[in-house]
Each structure stands twice: as structure tokens, then as C-alpha cells.
Amino acid sequence: MVQGGGAALHMAHLVTGGQPESSPAGPADDLPRHDDFDVVTRAIELLSLLAACLLLAWQLPRLAQHGALTAWWTLPLALLAVLAADFISGLVHWFADTWFDESVPVLGPRFLRPFRVHHVNPETFLTRDFVDTNGDVAMLTIPFLLLVFGLPLETAWGQAAGLFLVALSAAALPTNQVHQWAHMARPPRWVAWLQYWGLILSGNAHRRHHEPPHVANYCIATGWCNPVLSAVDFFPRLERLVTRLTGLQPRQDDQQYLERFASAEEERA
To answer: Rounded to two decimals, what is the model's pTM?
Structure first.
């Protein structure tokens, strides 16, 4: 586990105010940055967003037709799905932050690297546009929305399962957008209102995650699960269990990024 040094302490200050601050010399050009993707990847992300939104728009009337949006269990089940989406976002975030590194074929450069870069240079996250920010999550929701077509909506269990999957997908879809808003010093006013009332993740709530060694507040869909998971020490306990079972050590490549960060800071000093 990475111990906090001078570079690590400076990293914590990068997210003050919800948005990373540029150094006096300008943007952190020497730090790792989010990768630009090719036209094919961009097209896939855009199509994923369109498909996810269309599937949501398709499934909601189907659920309404069978009474799944007006049943006595609709609201509590939908809230449970939102909590599940937040918890899943935390598990995915924890895995990508903690295990393996960007040298892993396919998974490393496409999935793990953005999370590792984000800790060292969170400012680069704010340069990602809407499609880049949300396309990957949209792609992950599509199988769940397609699964609803196979459920027997004429039955009570089919309606409940369909509602859960649709609510889960709807809550998960803007996860990375909510995450990006939490890094903005001045998010849109309506977003700030949602953050203020705790309906979505706020900058203050997310800031704790960016305090080295980045082992708390992983959940980023709404952030609702973070207080409970922190209170029971969930992720540190899970890490110890994984290490005991597999021998893997968490965040082994964090020191490399910290050293690169410290080197860049010293050169600008």
C-alpha cells in the first residue's frame, strides 16, 4: 500500500473545491493524461449511448403496460436498484483502482489505465466530452436492458425483475457523468442542487477518495453506499481477503505513478 509522501499530499490538494487546480505553470502536461480514442471507438461509444437510451425508452412503456410502474412495490424496489447500482459502481471502481496494472492485455490500457491516471492527474477527466465520459457505462447497461425482453412481464416476478433491471440501468447510466460533475468547482446549478441534497455524489463526498492511498468512498453512482461501507471497513477487509486467497497486493503500480508525479513537480519547481 502506498504511503503518503510529499507528492501524495500534493495529490490530495488537486481536488480541493471539487475540481483539480492547474499549477501556476499551466496544465500538468508532464503527467499521465487520458488517452484519445480512434474514430471506431468513438463510434462505438456514441452508438452505445443511443442504444441504451432507446432501450430505456422502449422498456418503460412495456413495464407501464403491465402495471409494474404503479404497484405497491415499485418505489422500494426502484430505490433498492439505485442502491445496487451505487454498490456495483463502487465494486468496479475498487477493482480498477486496486488490482493489476495497465500492462494487462486489453483490460489494462482500455479499462485500468484511466483509473490510475485519474488519481495522479484528475484534471484530465474534465477534458473528456459527453460521449467519451458516458459511452463505456452505456455499453455495460445494454445487456441488462436487453434481458428484460426475455422476462414474462405478465407475471409478478417478471414485472419485479424487469423493473429492477430497468431502474438499475437508469441509475447506472449517468455514473461517470455524476463522477465528472463531482470534480467540477462550479457544476451546473441544477446539478449543484442535487449534490447539495445528497441525491447524487458531491465534490465534498468524493474528495475523500482522492486522499492517498485512495481506499475510501469508491461508490460514484450516487455515493449513498459510501458511509455504510466505510463504517464497516468493507473495501479494506475485502482487499485483505483477496490478498490472503491469491497473494496479490493492492495498488502495486501506484508508487510508479507517484514517483512520476513527484519528478514532474520537481522539474517545474
So the answer is: 0.82
